[in-house]
Write a structure and sequence with these properties.
The complex is a heterodimer of chains A (about 300) and B (about 240). Chain A is mainly beta and about 300 residues long. Chain A has one domain (about 5-305). In chain A, about 10% of the residues lie in helices and about 60% in strands. Chain A has three helices and 20 strands. Chain A has helices at about 5-15, 280-290, 295-305; strands at about 25-30, 30-35, 40-45, 50-55, 60-70, 80-85, 90-100, 110-120, 125-135, 140-145, 145-150, 155-165, 170-180, 185-190, 195-205, 210-220, 225-235, 240-250, 255-265, 270-275. In chain A, a hairpin with a 2-residue loop joins strand 1 and strand 2. In chain A, helix 2 packs across helix 3 (about 295-305). With about 240 residues, chain B is an alpha/beta fold. Helices cover about 40% and strands about 25% of the residues of chain B. Chain B contains ten helices and ten strands. The longest helix of chain B is centred in the last third of the chain and has 17 residues, at about 170-185. Classes of the chains: A mainly beta (about 300), B alpha/beta (about 240). The interface between A and B is medium-sized, with 22 and 23 residues.
Chain lengths: ~300, ~240
C-alpha cells in the first residue's frame, strides 16, 4: 500500500498511525479500499448490498485492536459508508476509527459514516473516533457520523470521540440501547472555530435492569461558531443515567445545550448537568501571576479543558 | 524592596464610591511581613494592588526602585512578585504537575516536583497527576496553591490568608511550612493572617483597619495590643459583656 505525505499526515492525526498498523485494519482512501488485514480472531468483509464493511470479532477475543481509518483528499467527493461491528460474547477489543479530510479544492468534501455496533454478552469495547479536517481549499469539509449501539447483557462500551480541528460542519447522531447490566460511557470533545457548526445528538435507552450510561461532552466554541448539544436518556428500568455538557464560549461563539431525561421507571435515576460560559477571569489571573501572558493563559486553559 | 506611595482605592457601590484604602504609605524591606486587622479593612485589596490584580485609584507602587504601577500582572510576575490566592482557583484538565511546571517556567524532574509538594506535606505520587479541580478538598487546594507559589521562587511573595478554610490538623502543618519558609527564603514574604502563631514568626506586623495603617511595628510592639483586643469593635464588646 502506497500513501503519500498528505495521506500519512491525515492517518497520524486521526489514528496516531506512523505506519501501516499491526493487526486487523481496513483503510478507506477516497471511497476505495486502500489496504486490509485480518487476523485469526477478527475478520473484515466488504458488504455486497451497499458500501461498507462488516467487522466480525470472534467471541472471547482479548487484547486485539482494529483500525478502520477513512481519508479523503479529493475535493467534491461525497463518501457514504455503512460499517457494522459484530463483537462476540466476552470479547475485549479496541476499535480505532476516524476520518481525516484534506480538501485542497473549492468543492465540498463529505464523509458520512454509519457505524452499527452489536456488542455481545459481557463483551467490552473501547471505541476511539477522531475527526480532523485540513487543506488550503475553500471547499467545505463535512462529517456526519451516525453511531448505532446495541449492548447485550453485561456488555460495555466506552466511546471517545474528538473533533478538534478543521471540520466545517458536523451532525453527529449516537443512538444506543442497553440491556441488563450493560454500560455505556461516551466522552466527546469538540472544538469549533470560524463559522463552523457542530451538532451532537445522543439518545440512549436504558432498557435492561441495572444498565447505566454516562455521556460527557466538553466543548469549546470560538469565533462565530455554533454548537448544539442534545442528550436524551430514557430510563425504562432500574437504571442510572448521567449526562454532562461542559462548554467554554470564546469570541462570538455560541452553544445550546438541550437535555431531555425520561424516567419511565420508578427506579430510574437520571441526572443532567450543563455548564456553559466564558473562561473564568480568575483562571486567567491565576496563570498570569505565574508569568504567562493573557493569550498563553487562555491556551493553557483551552488545552487542559480538551485534554 | 517594595514601596507603596499614597495608595487609595475606591470601589463603586450602589452608584457611589466606597473608599476601601485611604492614602496608604508603606515601605517593606523585611524578610517576613504580616498584614493583619479586621475583615473588610482593606488588607486583601492592598495585596491585590501589589500583584496588579486591582489597579489603585491613585498612588504609585515601586519594586526595587522601579515604578510598577502601570505594569500588568504578567510583567510583575516576571519581575519577581508572586501571589497565593485566599481561595485557590480551580481548573478543569490542568494537573498539579502542570501548574508547578508553569510556575517554575521550566521542565522539572519528578524529584523536583516532589520537593515542592512535600514542602507542604503532600505526597507527590498521590497528587502530581490530579486535576486541580473540585475533586480536591479545600485544604488540599490550599496546600497545592502554596506549593505552586513556592515553585515560582519569587523575590516578593504574597500569601493571602493561607490559613483560611483549612482544618486544624492541616493548620498545624501549615504553620511549620511558614516557619521553615521564614528561615530559608531568599526573598521577602508578605502574609495576610489573623493567626497569632503566624504573626509570631513575622519580623514586622502591619495592622490595617478602615482602609488605613493603624499600627506598624515588631511583633513585640504589636502583638500584646492585638491580644487585649484594642482593635475590636466597641459595640460588639459591650454586647459580649452584657
Amino acid at each position: 500500500m502506497e500513501l503519500n505525505q498528505t495521506k500519512m499526515n491525515l492517518l497520524r492525526e486521526i489514528a496516531g498511525l506512523e505506519a501501516v498498523p499491526q493487526g486487523a485494519y481496513n483503510i478507506r482512501d477516497n471511497g476505495k479500499l486502500a489496504g486490509r488485514n485480518t487476523t485469526a480472531n477478527i475478520d473484515i468483509v466488504t458488504k455486497t448490498d451497499k458500501p461498507g464493511i462488516d467487522i466480525i470479532v470472534k467471541p472471547g477475543t482479548k487484547g486485539e485492536r482494529v483500525d478502520i481509518p477513512v481519508i479523503l483528499t479529493e475535493t467534491g467527493l461525497n463518501d457514504l459508508v455503512y460499517n457494522d461491528f459484530f463483537i462476540g460474547d466476552d470479547a475485549d477489543v479496541v476499535i480505532v476509527a476516524g476520518c481525516g479530510i484534506h480538501n485542497a479544492g473549492g468543492l465540498k468534501s463529505e464523509h458520512d459514516g454509519i457505524h452499527a455496533f452489536h456488542i455481545g454478552k459481557n463483551a467490552k469495547v473501547l471505541y476511539v473516533e477522531k475527526h480532523y479536517g485540513e487543506g488550503e481549499g475553500t471547499g467545505e469539509r463535512i462529517l456526519n457520523p451516525t453511531t448505532l449501539i446495541e449492548i447485550d447483557e453485561g456488555g460495555s462500551m466506552t466511546m471517545e470521540s474528538a473533533q478538534i480541528k478543521g471540520v466545517d460542519s458536523t451532525d453527529r447522531v449516537t443512538k444506543a440501547t442497553l440491556k441488563a447490566r450493560a454500560t455505556l460511557i461516551v466522552r466527546e470533545k469538540i472544538m469549533t472555530h470560524g463559522k463552523q457548526f457542530a451538532k451532537t445528538d445522543f439518545h440512549v435507552v436504558l432498557e435492561g435492569e441495572d444498565s447505566g450510561a454516562h455521556l460527557i461532552s466538553r466543548s469549546i466554541a470560538k469565533d462565530e461558531s455554533h454548537q448544539h448539544f442534545v442528550s436524551c436518556v430514557d430510563g425504562n428500568n432500574r437504571s442510572s443515567g448521567h449526562t454532562e455538557c461542559d462548554a467554554i464560549i470564546m469570541g462570538s461563539g455560541t452553544v445550546t445545550a438541550e437535555p431531555r431525561l425520561n424516567a419511565n421507571h420508578i427506579e430510574a435515576s437520571l441526572i443532567h448537568e450543563a455548564a456553559i460560559g466564558k473562561i473564568a477571569g480568575e483562571q486567567l489571573i491565576k496563570l498570569m501571576t505565574l508569568g504567562l501572558t493573557e493569550k498563553e493563559a487562555e491556551e493553557q486553559i483551552v488545552n487542559g479543558f480538551l485534554k | 524592596m517594595l514601596e507603596l506611595r499614597n495608595i487609595s482605592f475606591s470601589a463603586e457601590e450602589d452608584g457611589s464610591g466606597k473608599e476601601i484604602l485611604k492614602d496608604v504609605n508603606l515601605k517593606m524591606d523585611e524578610r517576613f511581613i504580616a498584614f493583619t486587622g479586621p475583615n473588610g479593612g482593606g488588607k486583601s485589596t492592598l495585596a491585590r494592588i501589589i500583584m496588579g490584580i486591582v489597579k489603585p485609584t491613585s498612588g504609585r507602587i515601586f519594586f526595587d526602585g522601579q515604578d510598577i504601577t502601570d505594569l500588568s500582572i504578567t510583567e510583575r510576575a516576571n519581575l519577581g512578585i508572586s501571589f497565593a490566592f485566599q481561595q485557590p482557583v480551580k481548573f478543569k484538565g490542568i494537573t498539579v504537575s502542570d501548574l508547578i511546571h508553569l510556575a517554575a517556567g521550566k521542565k522539572l524532574s519528578f524529584g523536583e516536583v516532589c520537593e515542592y509538594l512535600s514542602e507542604v506535606g503532600l505526597c507527590a505520587r498521590e497528587y502530581v497527576n490530579r486535576e486541580v479541580n473540585a475533586s480536591l478538598s479545600g485544604g488540599e487546594l490550599k496546600r497545592i496553591e502554596i506549593a505552586v507559589t513556592l515553585a515560582r521562587g519569587s523575590r516578593f511573595t504574597v500569601f493571602d490568608e493561607p490559613e483560611a478554610g483549612i482544618d486544624l490538623w492541616s493548620f498545624n502543618s501549615l504553620i511549620t511550612v511558614f516557619e521553615r519558609l521564614s528561615k530559608k527564603t531568599a526573598g521577602s514574604i508578605l502574609i495576610i493572617s489573623h493567626q497569632e502563631r503566624i504573626l509570631n514568626i513575622a519580623d514586622r506586623i502591619v495592622v490595617i483597619s478602615g482602609g488605613r495603617i493603624v499600627k506598624d511595628g515588631t511583633k513585640d510592639e504589636i502583638l500584646p495590643d492585638l491580644m487585649t483586643g484594642s482593635f475590636a469593635c466597641r459595640a460588639l464588646e459591650k454586647k459580649e459583656e452584657a
